[in-house]
Specification:
alpha+beta; 3-stranded antiparallel β-sheet; 8 helices; elongated
Length: about 260
């Protein structure tokens, strides 16, 4: 959010200067700055909260970023329309609530544009970060050959070469985020450009198991279990809460994690 605040305020400043939708005639510059500044900040917060919520809904989370953020903008424009009425009534003159249907299309247009811009901006930052991590992994020297001795030597999975050194090697969980994979360790988390199924192939079945379409949990990472919400939630050693879907519930129980 700190990366988005200045662009949002910048858009509000531009709108205040040009005065769209009749605000140039009905308000002075100070009123327009207050109007678009307040509406811009409230709309931005609503967009961010809706986008975060949609990220937890599997069907919508699979949509392209532009499509998902368009829906976010259309929904965020509903409360934002009434905020426009409230702010305009405070700054200029009262507006009846009955005008909300007429104001919604104009407000939705701006909210959708801002939502899609925010979504693409975040996507670009995540992709750049993941590409940088991919380049770091590609530059690593190949793993040394294993000497042929009678006693097998433990080999670190190839996947651990992808974990940034700052995160250590105490792997707790993997979380799928769009086209990226978030690595969770006891020291923090970071993104890599990789599919979850490819990571599971590198790790092998003995290091943990998949508990959800978007989650894999390492062996020994579970500290407790929460069933208070009616859903099975694994609480990891770092406090991270991981949902268990019905598909994987039996295998989690067989593993003795519940």
């Amino acid at each position: 959010m700190p990366y988005q605040l200045l662009p949002v305020l910048g858009v509000a400043l531009v709108l205040a200067v040009i005065g769209p939708f009749g605000t140039y005639q009905s308000m002075d510059l100070v009123q327009r700055l207050a109007h678009f500044g307040i509406i811009g900040l409230l709309s931005w917060i609503q967009v961010v909260l809706l986008a975060a919520w949609f990220g937890t809904l599997e069907p919508i989370d699979r949509w392209p970023v532009a499509g998902r953020m368009t829906l976010v903008g259309l929904l965020a424009a509903i409360p934002s329309t009434f905020e426009v009425i409230a702010v305009h009534s405070w700054l200029v003159r009262p507006i009846p609530l009955s005008l909300a249907p007429k104001l919604y299309p104009e407000n939705a247009f701006l909210t959708v544009v801002v939502s899609v811009m925010i979504g693409l901006f975040v996507e670009q930052r995540l992709r750049a970060k993941a590409d940088a991590e991919l380049a770091r992994v590609a530059a690593l020297p190949p793993a040394p050959a294993i000497p042929e001795v009678d006693t097998p030597q433990p080999v670190a999975p190839d996947f651990l070469r992808r974990v940034p050194p700052a995160l250590g090697r105490d792997l707790l969980a993997l979380e799928m985020e769009d086209h990226y994979l978030r690595i969770h360790t006891t020291l923090g988390s970071d993104l890599v450009l990789m599919r979850l199924r490819d990571a599971l192939a590198e790790l092998g079945a003995e290091r943990g198991q998949q508990v959800h379409r978007s989650w894999w949990v390492a062996e020994g990472a579970v500290a407790s279990v929460d069933r208070s919400t009616g859903r099975l939630i694994l609480i990891l050693r770092n406090g991270l809460r991981v949902p268990v879907s019905k598909t994987y519930r039996d295998s989690v129980k067989e593993a003795g994690w519940v």
